[in-house]
Every structure is written in C-alpha cells, then in structure tokens.
Amino acid sequence: MTVSKDAQYAVVTVDSSLCQGHGECERVTPDVFSLSDELTAQCAPRQPLSLLDVLEHACSACPAGAISVEVRP
Ligand code: SF4
Fold it and tell me: Which CATH architecture has domain 5-72?
C-alpha cells in the first residue's frame, strides 16, 4: 500500500509540564501557537505538512524543549 504525501500531516505536541510560557513559539509561528491565560502554549495538534519547516523552527526556538513535531501518514 502506498501512502500519498497528501495524506500525511504533522502532529504537534506541547508538553505543558515543560512549557514555561516564554512565547517564542507564538512569536515564530503566530498562526499555529498561542498562549493560554495560564501562559501555556496551545495549538491544534494536527497541522498540514506545508507548515513543517516553521513547525520545526518553533520546536528549535523553544528554550524549554516542550514542543515535539512528528509526521504521520
Ligand atoms: S516557546 Fe516553549 S516554553 Fe515558550 S511558550 Fe512556547 S512551548 Fe512554552
């Protein structure tokens, strides 16, 4: 079975136990991340692959290492 690239997506996870509310993720990718009232980053977990580069940038920019990005079929 072949999985079409169109069928793939990126799963973004923010570990709220690590997030320190720096807001770098929101600064880098404001269309994806936002800070809650409790200053914890939040985002829709399923993102299009077209955003993979900026998602990986946000992941790298997080000083707490709280963001993970995984491509799923
Ligand atoms: S950059 Fe990292 S620590 Fe800062 S708000 Fe975003 S996920 Fe949380």
Answer: 2-Layer Sandwich (3.30)
